[in-house]
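Re: that backbone. Tokens:
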């Protein structure tokens, strides 16, 4: 199997698994208990908080653990409205956000909040002028993702942070794809709230985090026993949190070397696809993109058939977000950057990891070429295109 869907999830690294196992076996105490046996769990959570804070230049007391990046996104948006609704309730976000943001915003809109969704250019970069012009006195939050989960485009986060700061508006970023992959300094970038998830960087599924800058008020999200400083109740997932901490520690230590290698492989893959397969389009910014992301649309074919045929050859890929991979609708991200429905349907996202090899990529491109040729040979759209080429 060749796994090129690391934006959907990653395998847990051996070091992370080793860090987790003790809290399933000998050190299984409830971190909220007061006896000494349980303090090993409490210490593990505290240590993980420090490890994760270190990735983004935060203080450990600014880190809150959640069950996923989706939960963290929900918490950030709903909390901003609940805490600051006295000054109004207006949120600005973008058309290419993850559905964890867009669906939460939609829900808030049905419950009295006013939502502005700004556009992006052909590379998926937000329009900063449109963003700033959308701010009004009722605006409580700007939520723009750090890097897009489908097309990999990295947003001008520093400039967005400056705009938010200038107008006294909170700035949240969904950094689920970027955390541990690219450098992030929440102070330099003036980020007030940030979401991340462990399973995108070789940590376990089912654990995420919300960074909340000191002084930023956040509402209690889950009520109960008062865990996470009375903000997110529920017995802590100690093993998952310990795994997240270890994954974060490894990610920040290896980031530069890993990023350089992934960029080299990514650019090689992009070059081979564009050299060998005609009528393809790179989606997302060519340079300002995640190190491991390559997303292409191939004219005249349907993406689901392409994925199924790649699967037969032992290649795991996707046509967009894993959260909506069962949907037959074209990607909202690809439509937002201006693609036609039929072009968006023929998209492919390939996301690498540090173990990916050039030989694997050669195998993928060779099979992809054959698959696209076969699908185009059966496509009436491709037949019409060829006939028009002959006539002209």
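Recovered sequence:
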């Amino acid at each position: 199997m060749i796994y090129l869907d690391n934006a959907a999830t990653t395998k847990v690294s051996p070091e992370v698994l080793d860090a987790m196992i003790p809290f399933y076996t000998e050190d299984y105490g409830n971190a909220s208990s007061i006896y000494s046996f349980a303090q090993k769990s409490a210490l593990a959570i505290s240590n993980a908080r420090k490890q994760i804070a270190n990735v983004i230049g935060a203080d450990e007391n600014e880190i809150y653990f959640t069950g996923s990046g989706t939960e963290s996104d929900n918490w950030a948006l709903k909390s901003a409205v609940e805490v600051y609704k006295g000054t109004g309730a207006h949120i600005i976000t973008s058309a290419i956000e993850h559905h964890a943001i867009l669906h939460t915003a939609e829900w808030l809109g049905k419950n009295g909040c006013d939502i502005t969704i700004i556009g992006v250019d052909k590379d998926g970069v937000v329009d900063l002028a449109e963003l700033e012009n959308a701010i009004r006195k009722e605006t409580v939050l700007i939520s723009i993702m750090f890097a897009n989960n489908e097309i990999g485009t990295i947003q001008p986060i520093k400039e967005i942070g400056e705009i938010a700061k200038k107008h006294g508006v909170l700035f949240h970023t969904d950094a689920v794809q970027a955390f541990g992959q690219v450098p992030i300094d929440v102070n330099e970038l003036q980020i007030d709230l940030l979401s991340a998830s462990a399973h995108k960087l070789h940590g376990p599924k089912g654990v995420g985090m919300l960074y909340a800058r000191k002084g930023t008020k956040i509402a209690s999200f889950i009520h109960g026993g008062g865990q996470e400083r009375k903000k997110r109740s529920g017995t802590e997932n100690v093993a998952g949190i310990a795994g997240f901490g270890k994954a974060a520690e490894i990610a920040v230590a290896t980031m530069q070397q890993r990023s350089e290698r992934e960029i080299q492989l990514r650019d090689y893959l992009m070059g081979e696809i564009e050299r060998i397969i005609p009528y393809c389009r790179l989606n997302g910014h060519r340079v300002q993109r995640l190190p491991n992301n390559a997303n292409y649309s191939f004219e005249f074919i349907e993406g689901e058939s392409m994925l199924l045929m790649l699967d037969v050859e032992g290649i795991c890929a996707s046509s967009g977000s894993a959260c909506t991979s069962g949907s037959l609708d074209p990607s909202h991200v690809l439509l937002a950057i201006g693609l036609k429905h039929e072009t968006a349907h023929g998209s492919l996202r390939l996301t690498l990891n540090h173990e990916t090899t050039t030989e694997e990529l050669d195998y993928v491109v060779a099979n992809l070429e054959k698959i696209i040729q076969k699908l185009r040979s059966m496509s009436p759209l491709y037949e019409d295109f060829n006939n028009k080429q002959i006539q002209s």
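The chain has a mean pLDDT of 95. The chain has two domains: 12-251, 255-391.
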